[in-house]
Every structure is written in structure tokens, then in C-alpha cells.
Amino acid sequence: MIVKVNNLVKRYKELIALEHFNMEVEEGEILGLLGPNGCGKTTAINCILSLLNFDKGEIEIFGKKMTPNSYDIKKQIGVVPQEVSVFENLTVRENIDYFCGLYVEDKVTRKQYVEEAIEFVGLKDYVKFYPNKLSGGLKRRLNIACGIAHKPKLIFLDEPTVAVDAQSRNFILDGIKRLNQEGSTIIYTTHYLEEAEMICKRIIIMDNGKNLVSGTNEELKAMITTTEKIVVGFSVIKDETVQKLRKIPHVIDIEKREDDYIIKFENGLNNLSNLLEFIKENNLTYTKLYSQLPTLNDVFLELTGKELRD
User: Fold this and answer.
1) What is the CA radius of gyration of the chain?
2) Residue 132 carries which DSSP code?
3) How far apart are CA 256 and CA 263, in angstroms?
4) Are residues 184 and 276 in the same domain?
5) Residue 309: what pLDDT?
6) Cβ(262)–Cβ(255) under 8 Å?
7) In a domain, 304, yes or no
8) Domain range spanning residue 273?
């Protein structure tokens, strides 16, 4: 077990930021820590790293108790914070060299690591640039390079793709997968569900400082009632016909979004066929019709009654 968090509690006076939070991370996995902004993800990470004091709980990393003075453990950890944290008066190469030098004393090894980090994040053409001359996406890449240049065994990535363009986001996600393939264990926090589904082997969903559920994508989706959603846009449909729709076998809910109806089904093998038959029998005309499998947002919605990005 690389990380073990047991019964973690963190309070700010009357506010409970973490309430008996638990987490285990196996060696070699990418663990996704999901939840809306303000749910406690960053607080949990800062407590795990001993950057914040906490009121109750136990934290072990690499099988050892984590404390503010656990420098032998911290040397093996890389942190990429949510806010870009680089020196504006240092160039790209100088920034990466500085942060790598906090962990790697040997100059020859450090030089090699810095060059490898520059290549890894695709900043070879920008090594002499200062951060204020970089785009938001390139700054994010620099932030990542500073956090991983010393080749840590465990990497914390806290919302690394916030406010970046699609190209940079894909580059960053591909890089995270490569880090994992090269042997790093990764804890990845995000509120972008599609990212978690793309790269995470296991996921913890948290809200209000608590971890609600954990498991693989498939395990989480198997926990909820909804097994299929069919989106259909009707040219014209009466309210009484919508009520009839609810009586189709296995329908558990119908949600209207603008001109579309999202029909949610529980277990059933012929949901689409039953719906098409209903449309034919009632002489309805549709402008669109397609089936969707449940998403992580459906899991969160059923567990909490709200969407992840609310």
C-alpha cells in the first residue's frame, strides 16, 4: 500500500472540511479523487502531505507515518498544485532546475533530469521563456515539469487541466498516462468526469468532506439504478403522452432538457425497441434518438441529488 488514510478529520472552527475521510492507494495505480469544487479534495491532499494540521486520523505513505519532518518520504513525492506555482523571474529551464535541485543534489544527474522533464512536457522550444510569456496551457505544463522532474514514486496532481485549451488538456492527460506507465503512482483530483473515465484505474467520489463511494468505473456505475439513458427529441408531444411514456417497461424517470427528453431505464434488454414501438403506436415524430450508458455524473447525481459541477 503506497498511501493509507484512516479516519481523517479537519475542522476550521465550525466548518468541517474533512469528516472521517478514508483513502487507500495501491502501488502503480492512477487513483481519481472526484468531487465538486469545495468538497475537500485539496484539503485532503494538503493534510496527506503534512502541509496542514488535522484534528484526527492517521496517514501512512510508503508504509511509514507521515509527519511534517518526514523528509525521506517527501523526497519520493511530486506535487503539482492547482494554482500555477513557479517563479516569474526565472526562465522555464531555471524553474525546473530549481525545483529539481530541492531533491537532487548531484549536478550531472539533475541536468539530465531537467532535460528529460523539458522533453516530457514538450517545452523544448520555450526553455528561455519567462512564465509571463507562456500561454495558460504552457504554464500548466511548466507547473507539471517542476513537480515531476526529480522522478518521484508518488505524484499528486491537483486539478492540472483547469482553464487550459483542449490541445494542452490532451497533452497533459497523455503525459499522466506515460508517467504511470513509467512506474509512478498517481493521485489525480478533478471535477472533469470525462478525464477520470479516461485515465483513472480506480475512483473515489467525495462530497462535503466525505468519501461517498470508491471503485472502478464499472463498479461505480453498477451501484446505481440507472443502466441506460435514451435521449429523444420530439417534434410535438403532449403532456399526457409523456405520462404514457413513463409506463413503458423499466422506465424509472424522464427529464426534459429544452426540446429533448432524457428517459432513464433500469435493467432491461429491449428498452430501445420498446421506445420505438411506443413512438410508432402513438404516431410520434422524432428529430433525434440515441442511447447512452450511465456516466460518473449519473453516479454522483443518484448518490447526492446534484450534479458534480453544481
Assistant:
1) 23
2) G
3) 9
4) no
5) 61
6) yes
7) no
8) 228-293
Closest by CA to 117, choosing from 144, 90, 137, 154, is 144
User: For residue 67, how far is the Cα from the chain centroid?
Assistant: 26
Geometric angle at alpha carbon 118, from 192 and 99, rounded to 5°: 85
Beta-carbon-side half-sphere exposure of residue 296 (alpha carbons within 13 Å):
28
Per-run averaged pLDDT (10 residues), the chain, 310 residues: 96 92 96 89 94 95 94 95 94 98 95 96 96 94 96 95 85 92 94 88 92 92 91 93 94 91 89 94 94 87 73
3-state secondary structure (DSSP) of residue 309: coil
Closest CA to 21 of 217, 221, 224, 204: 204
CATH number (domain holding residue 273) = 3.30.70.600
Q: Which residues contact 240 (CB under 8 A, 6 or more apart)?
A: none
Are 71 and 169 in the same domain? yes
Shared domain check, 88 and 58 = yes
| Best CA proximity match to 150, nearest among 106, 191, 189, 192 | 106
Beta carbons of 230 and 292 less than 8 angstroms apart: yes
- What is the domain-level CATH number for residue 42? 3.40.50.300
- From residue 59, alpha-carbon distances to 44, 85, 183, 213 in Å are 11, 25, 22, 19
CA distance 189 to 6: 19
What crossing angle do the helices spanning 107-121 and 166-181 adopt, rounded to 10°? 130
Amino acid 104: pLDDT: 95
pLDDT given at position 167: 85
Domain count within the chain: 2
Q: Strands across the sheet with 286-292, in order?
A: 251-257, 260-265, 228-234, 286-292
List of residues 6+ apart from 309 with CB closer than 8 A: 36, 191
Shared-domain flag, residues 117 and 233: no
End-to-end CA distance of the chain: 33
